[in-house]
Amino acid sequence: MFKTIADPADCEVRSVIRFLNANNVKQAEIHRQLVEIFGENVMTDGMVRKWVRQFNDGRTSVHDEARSGRPSVVNDGLVTKVNEKIRHNRRFTIRMLCDEFPQISKIVLHENVSNRLNYRKL
After folding, report:
1. Over the range 70-105, which residues count as b (16 or more CB within 10 Å of their CB) and which as e?
2. Which residues span the domain enclosing 94?
């Protein structure tokens, strides 16, 4: 019996798929070997099929592709400005900060004030 590998990185599993696929191992056998080494929850049969297809279509990278999405407007400089506003007026409210920083949503502003700057309601 082989030693199992717990919590593998996605790119590790994909590398094994790419290697076995290059050695002409069938998709079902690839899935069986993955489950044997990485455990039951490693990857579904359908996901193995998807990756085998992608490697057969010419994909070479085992890493996730960059995703498009809305970039965050919150950066260290903006957090510093929010912190300065709070220090200037210790009786701030999130609504007051929203008026000062309209480019940040109320939820994101609250998360940054609470979690990043560690200001808590007393």
Report:
1. eeeebeeebeeebeeebeeeeebeeeebeeebeebe
2. 76-116
119/83 Cα distance (integer angstroms): 10
Handedness of CA 52, 57, 63, 64 (dihedral sign): negative
**Predicted structure pTM score:** 0.55
Counting Cα atoms < 13 Å in the Cβ hemisphere of 40 gives 0
Tell me, what's the pLDDT at 65?
A: 82
Q: Which two tokens stand for residue 20?
A: 């076995």
Position 29 confidence tier, pLDDT thresholds 50, 70, 90? very high
Quote the number of domains for the chain. Answer: 2
